[in-house]
Structure formats: C-alpha cells, structure tokens
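To close the chapter, one final illustration. This time we ask the reader to focus less on the individual chains and more on the assembly as a whole: which components sit near each other, and how the overall shape emerges from the parts.
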Amino acid sequence: MRYYVILLTVYLGIDTIAAWGLNLEYGVAGVANLGYILLIAAGGYTYAVLRLPHAVNLGTGASYIGGLSWPGWASILGALVIGALLGGLLGLVAVRRIRLDYFALVMFGFEILAWTLVGAFPNFLGGQQGLFFISDPGVSNASWDYVILVAVVCVVVWLVLRRFSGGPVGRTLRAIRDAPAAAAGLGKNLFAWRIVVQVVGGAMAAVSGALLVGFIGAWSPPAWTSLETLLFLTAVIVGGLGSDAGTFVGTAVVPVLIVQGVQFLPAVSSIPQLSSDGTMMLFSLATLGFLFWRSQGIVPERRPKVSLANVAPIQRTRIGSSAPSEYHERVNGVVSPNSSPNSEFDTFEQLPRRRGGAGPVILRAEHVIVSYGGVKAVADVGFEAAEGEVTGLIGPNGAGKSTLLRVLRGTQPPDSGRVELAGTDLTRVPVHRRVRQGLVGTSQLAEPFARLTVIENLLVAAQDQRAETLRGLVAGRPSWRREESEFVTRAHELLDRFRLAGKANDRAGTLSGGERKMLDVMRAFMARPRVLLMDEPMAGVTPAICDRIETALLELADTGVAIVVVEHDLASIGRICGRVVVMAVGKVIETGRMSELRASEAVQQAYLNG
Amino acid sequence: MSGLMEAIGFGLASGAVLSIGSVGLTVQFGVSGVFNLAYGSLLTVSAFIGYWLVEQGLNLWVAMVVVSVATGVLSLMLNRGIYVPLQRRGASPLTLIVATLYVATFIQYLVALIAGDQQVSFALQAGSERSFIGFRLTTLQIEFIALAVALMLAFHLLLTATKLGRALRATAGNRTLARACGIRTARVVDFTWLVTGMMCGAAGLALAATTVAFDFNLGSLFLFYMVAALLLGGAGHPYGAMLGAIVIGVSSQVAAFYGNPQLSDVVAFGIMVVILLVRPRGIFSHSGATSGLEA
Amino acid sequence: MRVRRAQVRSVPVAIVLLSSLALLLAACGTGPSSSSGGTHKATPVTVGVVAPFTGNQAFIGTFFGAACSAAAYVVDQAGGVLGGKMTCAHVDNTGDPADAEPNVARAIATLSNFDLAVGLDSATAAVTVPLVENAHIPLVTLNGLSQYDNNTNQYFWRVEPDDTNQGAALAAYTLQRGLHNVAVVFANLGSSESEVSGTITGLKNLGVHTTITLNIPSDATSYASEVTRVISSHPQAIIMDGDPQTETTFFTQYKQLSNGHVPPLITTTDLLSTSFTSAMTKNLGASFVQHDIAFLGYYFSNNATAMSQYKNALEKLLPKKEAETDLTLSGLPTEYDGIIVAALAMTMAHSTNGPTYNADILKVSEGGPGAVVVHTYAAGLAALKAGKSIQYVGVDGAFHFNASHNVSGQFQVFDQTSSSGSSTIATVTPALVTQALG
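The assembled structure is written out below.
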C-alpha cells in the first residue's frame, strides 16, 4: 500500500508537470498540440539513453544509441534540453508556415512518424520493445524520497511556469490566443511567442517524461500513444483551460483519480475490455460535456483585478494632448459634465479650432498595386498622411480603400509599390515590427481579447514592455513593477476618457458592439502611435460613442499623430478630417477638404456608380 | 521494372479507396468548416456494419449501399447533434477539432465495446488476379478502382453541372454571402454531411474488404492517410484530395517495394510534410484562398 | 501596482479529491497484502494474472486468465490450498510499462492474499518483475527477455526459455524439415524483435538460405508490394512473426497475388487462437490451416494424466471449441503447471506466505531421492499428507530450474487438425537450437 500511495503521488506530480506544459501551449497560448506525448516520449528516451550504460544487451535483440552512464540529475537536464530543442524545432517547421488547425493535425502525423521510426530501427531506441532496466536518477524510486524529488521539481516548474502563464507575458500569450491578428496588430510577434511557448512546453514535457522513466525504469512505444495526449488534453479541458491551478485539479481528477478509480470497479467477466473502453468513452463524454456546458472547466481561468487604488503614486504620463489632471479627477468613473470634451466639437464648423494643423508628411505610399485573381483592387495608388492631421480615405464599396489601408498596415502584401514611414522603407516589414516603429492600425471588425479584462486589453497594447524581454522574464516582477504601474495609470486615463472605467475589470467578451469598437480605438491609443490607421472606427456605433471616438481622435491628432480614417459616414469624416482622399475602382480620384469634395462632380459620379 | 509497375498498380488500388474517403473528408471541411476527426471512426463503424451484413449473407454491393446510407445518416446526425450546437455556442475551429477528436474516441471505443477488441476477418473471394499493362490486380481491386472513378466523376458533375453544386461551392466560399444570395445554407450543409458520410461508408467497407482482417482501430489509422491526402491537396479541394490520395497510395507501395516496408509510411507522411512546408496550403490552393470548396 | 494573485481556490478542491481517492483506496483494499500465514486453515489464495487484458495483445490475457482458472478449478476440486479457496485476479499490464506499473502496484496494495503472480510477459516484464519481486511474492513468469537468463531474483521462476531461443528453434525446425530457402517476415511488434534476431542468427548458423527478410508494419491495410517481393524470392516456406491480424491480411493477399500458391507458414504457438485459425480458414482454406501452418512452442513432455485433467478443467470452464483449439498448446499448460507447483509448495510449507513457501517450489519440481512422482494436485496432496516428498510432473513434464531459476527444455511443433485440436508433428532437439545460437 505504501508503494502504491508513493506511486500515485509521483504520478500526480509527473502528470501535472506535463499537463501544465500542455496547458501553457493550448490553454494559455492557444496552440493545440495533438502530438504532445511525442515530447514526453523524447524526454523519457533522452533520460534513458543518457542514464543507461553503454551498449548492454537489452535482451530483446535490439539496442540503442547513447549509453553514456550520466548521473541522474544530468540525464534529467539533458532531457530538458532535448525537449526544449525538439519543441522549438517542431514549432519552427510547423507553427511558422502552417495554420494552427493544420498544426494540430500535423503534430498528430509527426507522432505517428516517430512511432514508425522507432519501430523500424530497433537499434535506435530499442525498437517496439523499448528500453529496460534504466536506473533511477540517484533517488530510490521505492521511497518517499522520490516523492520529494518530484515535489521539488514541481515547485521549480511552477515558478518557471508562472513567468509565462502569469504576469504581463501570460497576458500577452492569452491575447495572442484570443485574437491572433489583433495581437500582431499591437506589435506582438506571434511566431516568436509561439516558439517560446513550444520550447517551454517541450522542456516541461521532457522533464515529466524523464522523471517517469526514472521512476518506472522502462520506456517503450506503447507508453506514448496518442491516447496519452488525449488524457492530458482531457485533464486540461476538464480542469480549466488556461488555469494552472485548474490543470492541477484536472490532473488529479482525470489521469489519477478516474483512471485508477475505474480499476476498482467490479470487472464484468464477459466484457473484459469494459473498464478500458468504458474509461475512454467516459473521458470523451465528460470532455464533450465540459465543452458544451462548462467550457471554462472546474477551476476557470481567473484574471487579476486591476485597480488604480493599488497603483503606487507615480508621475502621470501624458496620453494625447489632454491635461492629465482632468482625467485624474475621474478616476472612479465619475464624469463631471462640464469637462466633457465632446461639447467642444459638436459641429463641423468647430473643426478649424484644431490647434497645430498638418505637419510634415510622415507616412507615404507610392505606386501600390494589389490584385486579387487578376482584378486590380488597388491600381497604382500613391498616398500620404501628415503629422497632426486626420486624413480621410473615402469612396464607394469596392473602391480599394480597405485594401490600401491593409497595405499600409502590413496585413496585405502589395504586388508592387512602396510604403515608407518617416523615410524608412516598410514595404516588406511585418505588421508587428511596423507597430514598434509607431505605425498602428485597427481593423474593420472589432477584435477584443475576449477572455482578458477590458483593462488588460489595454495593458497588452503598451509598447516596449520590459516584462516581455528575456531580462524581464529572468528578473521577474521587480523588473517590471514600475512600468506596469505606469501602464495601468495610462490605461485608466483612457478608460475614463471613453467612459468605460466602470467596466475596467469586466471580460472584454462581455462588451457591446460599440464598446468593442471603443476598446479597439483605446488599444491603438495605448500603443502610442505616430501614425494611426483606422478602418471604419465609427461603423455601427451609437452617435454618443461616435462622439467620443471623434473627440479622442482629434485630441490625438493635436499631439502630432498622423491619423488615417477609412469611413463611410461622410458627416463624421467632415467633422474630423483635414485632407480627404477619394478612391474609386482602385484609383485615387480626388483629394481635398470635405467641403470642397462635396461639390466635386467626379466624386459624386463615383458614388453614384459605386 | 515490372515490379515497379506492379507496385504502382497496388498504389492505385489503395489510392482509389483512399480517395473516396479523403474527398469526402475534404468536402466536409470545405463546406462546413469543421475538421472532423470522427470521420475515421465512422469509417470503422461502416466497416463493422458491412462485415456483419456480408456475414449474414448479403451481397457485398448491396451491403455497400446499405452501409453508405446508414453512415450518411449517422454523419448527418453527428453534425446536427454535436457540431452545429457547438458552433452555435461560439466554439472556435480549434475547439471544434478537439471536440471531434473526443467524438472520434467515443465512437471508436463504443465499437470496441460492442464488437470486441479482437480482429474480425472477411471471407471474400477477391476474384481472380488480372494482369494488364504490368499491373496485377484482383477483380475486387479493379471494381473498387472503378467505383472510385465513378464516384469522382459523379462528384465532379455534381459540383460543376448542377444548381446544388453551385450552392455547395457558394456555401463553402462564404456562407454569409451565400445566405444573402438566397441559398439555404443549412440545407446545403446537411446535404454535405449526408453525402460525405455516404462516401465515408463506401470507403470503409471497401477498405475493410481489401484489408481482409481488421479491428476497431481500422479507421483511426486510416484517418491519418486521409488527412495526409487532404493536406497534400489543399484543404477543401476535392481534386487535390484525389491527387493526394493517389500520391500517397502509390508512394507508399513503391517505397514498400524498394525499401524497408517499415518506412513506407515515413515516405507518405514525409511527402506531406515537405509539401506543407513548401506550399502550406497544399498543392492545389491559390495563395488567397483559405478554405472553401474549389472546383 | 499590485495585481492581485489569482486565488488558488483549487487547493482545497484538490485536497478533497485526493482524500476521496484515499478513502476509495481504503474502502476497496484491506491494507497491505500480508498473507496471514499457513496457520489459519481457511485463508484463501489469490493468484494475480499479470498480463495484457486490453489493447491489441489482449488475447494473451485471455489465455493466461483461462489457464489460471483451470488451475484454480483443479485445486479447489481437491479442497483448495490448506483449506482455502484459490481465485484468479486479472491484473492488466496493458502492454504499456507506464500503465503496468500503477496497475501492478495497485494489485499488490489492494488484492488480499496476493500470494502468487503468473504471466508477466515480455512487453512489461522489466517493470512488473521487480515490483512483484520486491513485494516478496513468488512469480511464475512466461516472459522471454534474455536479460533474465542470468539473474539473482529470489522469487523469480521462469518456466519457458527466452525469446531468442524460441527464434533459434524456428530456424532449427526449418533445417530439420529439410527446407533450404525460406523467407523471414516480421511485424514491428515488441514481442517479435528478440525472436527474429534469434531466427536470423539461427538460419545463418545452420546454413539455411534466407530468400528475403522483411520488417513490415503491423495492421496495415495493404501488403501488396511486400507480398510481391516475397513471391518473387521463391521461398519454400515463410517464417512469420506478427499479430494474428497482420498475418491474416498478409497471407490472404499473398494468396490473391500468387494465384493461390501459398508456401507453408512457420510461426509460433502465440498465434494459435480461434480467431486466427478461423480467419485463416475463411481465406486460405481448411486444408492450408490444417496442413501448412506449423506452430512452434516450448514443451518438455506431455503427461497424459495431467493433460486430461487440464483439458477437463478447461472444458468445464470454457465453451468446448475454445478450450480445445486454443488453450492446450499455447504455452499455457506451462503456466498451469507453475500454479499447481506453487500450490503444492504452499501445502508443503504449510503456508501461503511467499517467503515461507518460495523455496519449496524448487523441491516440488525437482523431487529428489525418494520423492513420489505425482501428476495431479490431488495426488500431490495425498502424498504430502502421507508425509512423503513429491515431484510434480505435469502437463509439460517437470520443471528443471537452474541457479537463475530458468528452465531449459525442448521445442515442439504442432499443427492444427480439424476436430481434435492440435497434434505434435515434430520435436526440435535442444542440440540443434544450441547450434543455431552459435
């Protein structure tokens, strides 16, 4: 009994480590790795061939590579390294080029490939019969010492895990999970983060595998079928996707409690396969049930409540041109009517009150051509936006406005042409790098990071986060505490301005359509753009929200930011834009102030024909 | 050289059965957007039902019709009962894949529970062996190749020459737009699951009959070949899946003929991985298309 | 700023779960399986059958379980062990070492009176043997790992030669049968690797020409290309080692592609199951199955008395057809004998406690001067009661254990005749096996 309890505890620890890794990949970062068991297997094999002595006869007619007789700790570390490398490598070949749903399937395929290879070369890793008589890692596997070893590793892994699944990095990864395109549009390098996650997840899987092999002393292909991945996936889904604590609970319930529990049920002798088949069916039903009725799992992913009360008083930084003190007063969401900035800009006539006016051109596009299947959506178009000005981009449906905007943002590669920001060629620069240079955009459909809170949505958008650097990851909270306070303050100022402070800690997925639009705008503001590209920011919002957005855009322009707005609501364009560019059938047909354009026959014609 | 021709012939025979299955899978994905991993388990179900019917003395082709209809209805029920409600609850495509994986597992082990986890074996007379232009095939294999060709032709006609085919392609391309154009997309999706389920049924019985001995793992192993064929040709692309099936069938048989047969799967999957890396959307897809049905 | 930590409310939940697990364990098991010793007359004996009961090797579990049931039946008919009833508990080792470990550990922890373990086949023996050994439970194992050829485990009793020997015996039989050109085909199953290395070495050492050696994937849907290669190598016979499904598919496709000319199949008694023979009969005909398949297995001798009792027990327990075709020749009589020997040893030691009766296993199998030779459990019991020492010579004869608790013996080859089950068609001489191994 003693050994059985030791074994269960050890299995719980080992399975938890693996499930945490899978949760980091799937629950937190949204990359479903259906071949996860492959990484656990790699860790197990690495431990085995490092720990085993050179070329013993396995008794199976098969042999293995390695056989280095390394000490236990070194073998575990070796497994960690191999797991990290393999995870990174698989991520590198697959995540980069292949869609995420394909990736899930391709990993399945890789697992089958690995199976076949191990079986086909019996002298590589012992073939189908596997490796036996592998020593424990210097800690006896029949004693509580092994439990202590696993517990210590669990704690270390937990600490490392929190660096990725908690804090600003966890926030960023979840943003990438919830809305990858929007995250890239805020400067997140999806590819790099996904690789990082694959590396960390791979290392965790491998350590789990190594500890398992060190415990049982044997490893063979039947131990790493795709069903094992299913077991961990079940643990993660049932426990709570994205929740580390939930994953632990899920592991205690699924691979330990249920798998062991069913073995205690009385056997039905006429159907010997009942317990194993029944278990698999039970798992499948339970998981489907969770996906249907409680997709958040037993312990739902929690998000931290962020409030200004907890922010250390620091120097407020300016966002836009408005006086920060004004917003400071509204910290608790109380809006004083007479300070409402909307009142100043109620009408088109008030537009000339804008301070500053257009500065030098900062964004320039030349000879842009984009064609879809032979049809030129954008046909040799040039475009400019100046600092401190809101430039309008209008035209009938199918004029190519949004396509041009996507070329400027970097989400649509042009067939030819050139885009430059402040004299630097950006044509081949990916979206997330453009963002870091100050070129920020929003897309037509609002894409909130649904399972993050509203304020977290804004915090994700802050640029140059130290927490996301290697140093920040190593040093932890002390290194980013101060900047985080700063970001929270700025985020609250934005929330106040858009009168959403009351919803700061609501999940963004619960917002209404108009609120989502505002959130998109706020996120873009949070990224401190030099150039802001907005695709129909006012589409489908109420006049009140429209007001707030217009005001905010004007204020932002006053600080010298160049803003480009694609919009169908010409009244709105008239209220906020200086120069307006009119496109029709892929070409620019007019440029001028809205008041002038209204008179233009060419423009009227284009709208009529469009 | 004659050996090579023989191996190619075997490859065409197994590619034919594979193409029936993978075209169904790719169309299902193209039209409904659900990557249904339970397709393999349905294939197993159809193999067992077919086996049972043939054991009862039913003619193979009659059994195939019965099995196809049964599997088609099952497939329809699967989509209506599980996937559509899940989609309505806002499940992401990735969540759906995971859900289908669990549906697949459930069905697979249900089969194991009912039919037992040991092998069953057909007692079919595969017919005499025929040799022509270097191929050596049994009558049964030739019949299945003919079946595959007929199904592919029928499918091609459906897609290109009928109103329903246009509705299928429109729904696959952009469901919202299709609905706006007056196409009853829900009906189209139902039809898709029925028809692709029928193809799954036909493939299942044909596979079981040529494999002779099989167990409840039949479909889950075959699923990988179907997925490989699908990815090779580009998801949602029926002609791509046909080509992918032939490429995988022939390459694994040729590899088994010349090298270590253990590595025949490695060659087949290796081709898939390489193609995916060079052309992430498969051989056939255009750069712009993400999913949808292309004909 | 202080972002509040996500509260770990799950910890109490986990504690509740873990403690319910503990409760579950406590409810189901009655603590450590310390056998209460032989003084209590009515203590039952539980034999743990450690074998795969699920997965694609589940048929092994079915066999092992049946042989154990037969032994338990015979023992109970004779009044049990020291008055206690003998029962068989199935311990599923699943074929996966990572699952075998907890399953066997759980059995040790929770099975009451777990005093004897049988089975422990090759795939997971490396994990299961040490567990059982450390629990001081004598184990009668049928694993084929050559690693255990020399070992110092005290409770370890292996009643079959290792897999390499069996592989070499296949080669030896080929030579004995006068075949000079054979094809070797094996599937990538764990159990076949060691055997195949023995076969290949054996054929080489004995000068039998191998026309082709193919390692094929198991349970594939088509073996057409592989079959073509074998056909064009023109073998006189095919030595094949794979699971029933793979061999059925392979040979059926062979028949299709060779115009019905299929060379004889030489394989092992592992495959001698109803599902295999009926599938082969369906597709290759009854005549092929009855005359052209040679099943090789390890047997020392057949004692008629012991055999009839064993068969009788099987017939009582199982449907007639299964009892006859499957279970008399698949290495299972060996397991049956092992259990009877252990039961007699318990009686001799007046204890069902492993450490107490373990040494008597050797005494019962070796006999020694003045020992009465017995062929049944009842006879052994009577002799022991009369105060005599005994030697059990069972279905497979007597076990002759060496210092490593391994046996040496000889292989026999069987064929599957239609009605009366199988019959011996050849005996492979140990000398030839030795020669095959070089």
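Chain A touches chain B at residues 30, 32, 34, 93, 97-102, 104-106, 108-110, 112-113, 116-117, 119-120, 227, 230, 233-234, 237, 271, 273-274, 277-278, 280-281, 283-285, 287-288, 291-292, 295, 372-373 (CB under 8 Å). Residues 314-356 of chain A have pLDDT under 50 and may be disordered. With these observations in hand, you are ready for the problems at the end of the chapter.
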